[in-house]
Design a protein that fits this description.
α5 packs across α6. By secondary structure, the protein is of the alpha+beta class. The chain has one domain (15-128, 171-211): Electron Transport, Fmn-binding Protein, Chain A (Pnp Oxidase, Chain A). The protein is built from 6 helices and 10 strands; from the N terminus they run ααββββαββαααββββ.
Length: 213
Amino acid sequence: MITKPPARRVDAPALANTIRRMPDDPIARFQRWFAQARRTGMALPESMTVATADARGRPSARMVLLKHADADGFVFYTNARSRKGRELAANPRAALVFHWSPLNKQVRVEGPVAEVSTAEADAYWATRPRASQLAALASEQSASLASRAQMLARWRALSRRYRRTAVPRPRHWTGYRVAPESIEFWTHRDHRLHDRELFTRTRRGWKQVRLQP
């Protein structure tokens, strides 16, 4: 289940009316497909691949969890000092892929990336389980580690330190919003004659075209 600040819901009740009024809006379609994926009972429908590249164009990819999605973009949280954080600082663009096997569907998103506001990061941090907050504080993500025991010892020490107080959000732990310039919807069809619909953002709104499989 996606966790997000109360003021910005992925599946707010009012969204149903928006979807009916805007059948060809790609964000509305994403919300509809995401809701369908959740209803299948599949594990972590919010999981997505995030692909980034360094300043020299060398790519890397990993799985993360979507935490919020609306017309402004797709949000995930991480350590800004991690490999993906460093790559986004050098080359602030990303590509996302969602694959929902029970639905035979996938969605691809591409666009520029910017950090969320401090208020948004603080609001989401407050919703995280305490143990996860401590893990984020303990980990120098992507840095080398002598042993797992060393990491666990650091986690336990922080747990004792903040036993009676709130766990502070590290300044380098934040969220990133991918503002979609393009969104492709892919649906499996027999004989590999798959459906592909590409939405590209223009000054006048979204342009929709069908692609060959």
